[in-house]
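During data preparation, we tokenized the protein backbone, and the record follows.
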Amino acid sequence: MRQLSVVVLISAVALCAVGCGLGSSRPLTRSGLLRSADAICYGVDVMRDETTIKRLSDYQRLMPALGVYEEQALVKLEQLHAPAELDGQWKQMLAQSRVAADETSRIALSVSSRKYSAAKRELASVSSSEKQSALIGAKLGFQYCSRVET
């Protein structure tokens, strides 16, 4: 019975990946891209909303996990193929998102190394990159991929 559960779970994950456009080299439709990407961005938004940072020790504890989660989400987004008419803007949005994810990782590294002034500089930079990505996402019609953490 346990083996059947594992097989069903693996099949469900594979179907979701195919249904979301992951693993496909064909471009999605506009609505398919919006639906698939927003589902991924929604997960990031939930993770961010659940990550409450009030003290420096919270940064040390939570930023590495948030950085990993954002990186995984970005990899999934990069696997989606936009329709031709959205491809340029989609790639710009992904590029800004990549910059923000890299900056989040640098913040986590700076905080874990107790380099707090560097972390402060990166926080300002990541905010700018996220805003640029969100502006493009809003133009494309995303609901969650156009949200900026406040």
Notes: The chain has one domain: 26-140. The CA atoms of residues 57 and 111 lie 9 Å apart.
